[in-house]
Amino acid sequence: MKSLLKISLVASIVLVSANAQDVNNIDGAFSNGEVSGQIRLGFYQKNPDKTMEKTQSVTAVGGQLKYETASLNGFSAGVAMYASQSIGALSGKQEDGKFSPYLTSSEKSYTELAEAYINYSIDDFNVRIGRQAIDTPLSDCDDVYMTPNTFEAVVASYELKDLGLTFLGANVQRMQGGDADYQNVIDNNWKDTGDSSTNMAALLYLKNDIEASAWYYDIGKEAKAFYVDASKEFEIFPYHHVTISAQYLNENEENDSNFDGSIAGIMLEANYYSFTTMFAYNDVDLDTGKTIFEGFGGGCSFTNMETTTAGSLGFDSKSYVVAVGYDISNINIFAAYGDFESTTDNLGHMTEVDAGVSYSFNDNSDISFVYVDAEDKLATNSGADEIKVFANYNF
Hints:
This protein is mostly beta strands. It contains 1 helix and 21 strands. The strands form 2 sheets. It has an 18-stranded antiparallel barrel. Strands 1-4 form a two-stranded parallel ribbon.
């Protein structure tokens, strides 16, 4: 699920320690450590079109609390607790079937040690071991719930800054978060990334207004995937920029996992002063009877929206999204329309409308409102509309 409030053209990965201060003794590493976090108040409501289904809602408060040491001889460490607690008086009643676990869990709350890592940096080399935030094409934080996904992983990178290149290798064992389906479990269990751990390698390029990346994934015993994307920004005239992007994902199944197919896409984005327009297109090509794996997280396809993704239909399909956005002062307004249709008649056809507004009070606090209307064009009363409201305070 990709929020069009934050359109990302080329995938990246979170690696570098947030606290770069160097000290010369262990006492200094802890005394000069940094505390950071986020307090989030969220509201979610889903209104199904089916007359027999009930409207579900939840209001929750939660967020993140993180501590990270300063760097000692290149070593640092960090831990972070994530939590969410529903507010009963402002949520649907569970006994009436009107409670939604979307922002919490079936138990109406969770607390998780979501980050716990050791980081080592020397010159242009960095390695991080443990529970951490990662953003890659097929494994990402997808911060659309109360707290983001995180992963148990070993991630190493090496930069050639003069050339604009970064080499990356990683082994990812498990994940937690909304995309690990913890809404439906009691203990917020961590979920394996595939039948066994996932290995990945990547080459990233960022220079001269060009962003490009190539990724290889070995999703343990389930599939091997290759992903590439690239974007180039052009300045047409002052304050008027156009960005052209392309992507391609290819997957080959292993052990009859059923993941076998490809996704290709293009995206055009134009900026003029505070006004932005975007057009994206994806084509999904599946082997007979197969499906496509879109990632441990929100997925990377250009046409992915709040609830519908390029591969949602499960058939060969085409999809497009058109979006507009406007920034005025501290306010961002956006609207998007997506159409997802099987290339074989009458196998599947979904549409989705996303619209929203966000306001930044200052550098530390903001509020956002998103409305989603998804509809199955081939079935009666099968869609739903959703409302999401988030207020954040970062420290």
